[in-house]
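Hello Y.,

Per our agreement to keep a running log of every chain we model this quarter, I'm adding this entry. I've kept the format consistent with earlier entries: sequence first, then predicted structure.
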Amino acid sequence: MAPLFDLPFEEPHQPAPAEPPPRRIYTVSELTAEIRRVLEEAWFEVWVEGELSNCKVWGQAGHLYLTLKDDRAQLKGFMFGSDLKRLKFKPEDGLRVIARGRLSVYEPRGEYQLTCSTLEPRGLGALQLAFDQLKRKLQAEGLFDPARKRPLPLLPRKIGVVTSIDGAAVRDVIKVLGQRYPNVHVVIRPARVQGEGAAEDIARALAHVAAWDGVEVVILARGGGSIEDLWAFNEERVARAIAASPVPVIAGIGHETDATIADFVADLRAATPSNAAELVVARKEEFVAGIVRRTEKMAAVVRGVVHEGQRRLDAARARPGFAGFGARLVTRGRYCDELARTVVGSMGSQVGRRTRQLEEYRRRLEGCDPRRRLAQDAARLTRLDGRLRAAIAGARHVADRRFRDVAGRLDALSPLAVLARGYAVCWNADRTVIIREADAALVGRAVTVTLARGELDCTVVETRPERAGGIDPNGRDDTHV
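Predicted structure for the entry above:
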């Protein structure tokens, strides 16, 4: 072994430390997306039990938003509207359910949630829960109220039947109706009574057969089966179609122990389809026998009344006060006949007199007939109109002749006619005075000369007094302007 001091003072060679890996920095969106991927892959399908709360349906698509909770935690959930429509019951707050779905993350809020594909009630079947919910709802609306139930017609002439054309129920109904009321008119409207779309088909069939001309009552029938088989009769649309029917509806669905929503809404519930047919019509013989019994009872009552009346009449005749009553009655009858003849004769006389007066009034009215007087007045007006027109024409002719004479005379006296022959009119400057003498016009003043056509504005240059003959010795005109 080497001595201790023979060892070198340096420490033995150590390997260099490894470099740390580079940091991976996530954005919030990337980290949330990664968490969502991990959750959806690890929890693709999970069953969760809890109590429903905050159940709300939003949007036109009808998506359901909910919260599952227990005494220590809660989990937000979501269900698409298409999945919600397939549920047989309505999710409500406080209902304990088992949800099947997958975990996911709602990235905008960074919350994880359960996307549910189906819900099952805990401790109670979904169908039974849906049945109870719909029953409470319709009962609150008054659809089960006995006051709205309508009585069935006594002997309907036309009966509508809604059922499957291939089932035993239709044969039972036809058999019973044929035995009890052979001449009844049956209108059968086939409909699906089980499976997908059966409720819609039943509702359409009820509306169609109830609107058929002459149908007075409708039988809704189906044979027995499980609650799943009879579920179409527990649908809300079928219940409302029964309530909206304009004629009474009798429900014969399943066996006596089977109870559906349609039984509660119908106007009458029958234990079976055959019992429905028995209730809707009475046996013809029983009906006729009832009429005979009532006829005999009525005849017996009438005979008793007549017998009692005859007895009382005989007892009255036997009394002393009624002795000779028959003879007095005959005498009074004869007196009444005489009075009647007198009244009839008097009335006949009065009627004859009134008839003659009426005839006289009629003749007088014909003499005063407004139509005749109107015709006479119309002829008179026509003659007067002709005379008036002739007088107007003559007066117009005379006035025209006088007007022409006066116009001729006026035209002869008109100064315009004088002007037309070559004369002129001389005015002062403002056309207020006619200048008739040369001395009246001053030299240098303006004058206006009116001719037959137009006027002249002139200035007086020289005036000459009037000379004999109007012409100066030199042979010139004595007036110049």
